[in-house]
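This follows on from our talk about sequence and fold. I would like you to pick a protein and set down its sequence and fold. Go ahead and set the record down below:
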Amino acid sequence: MALPIAVQLYSVRGDVKVDFRGTLEKIKKMGYDGVEFAGLHGHAPAEIKAMCEEIGLTPISAHVPYVDMVADPKGVLSQYAEIGVKYVVIPYMTPEYRPGAEGFAEVVENVKMLGKAAGELGMGLLYHNHDFEFIKIDGKYGLDVLYESVPADLLQTELDVCWVNVGGEVPADYIRKYKNRCPVVHLKDFYGEKSEDMYELIGIQSTEPKRPGNFEFRPVGSGLNDFPAILKAAVESNAEWLVVEQDKASMGLSALECVEKSINYLKSIGY
């Protein structure tokens, strides 16, 4: 069974900023079934909903900054409910909110609140991990502590297989660990080793001196992840969607060429 495939629009953020509709049309032509948003780029929710309907893309989910949702849960989430997304996703945590930090206990309570608010609007709340959630708290990964602390009816997971791997775990095994709680799997590939400048590749700058590494994001199927195993685990764990994401273009390709290379690989192995 092949799952439907979406693309996280952060992958082509420069293109959507210039031509939102035209980029969606290109994505559809590549063979994608849906999209996951990362900002609305000045477009009204009703306009985006109409674009997706006309082009034939499912607006499956949206990455929405944690602090924005906490500041105005109903106001922010209602925009995405209007678009018709099934899931809203906490995409990234700044250091003060991460597992092990003082603010993490507050995060757990806010996530419960956001899960309820999303549910009242007909959506589910997901959490998208990076590698920093794989810090141990009393012998358990911070990511696992989060999912143990918040009931499954209020929070599900969007496992990012690149960051699970970088965090030291086998992605396919980790997907199976969250069987029936991982409706969306982020397909992301990479090459190289965990390095001090990884997050600068996604625009997270630091004033601290860093030793450059050889880490880079790659189109799906062009890096180190075992995607046949990952896809098998996703199907067996009752995932609903696969989402391709590449934080920064590489291999001499443009961002659009990278996401096209990703879906062409997935098609070549039966997806």
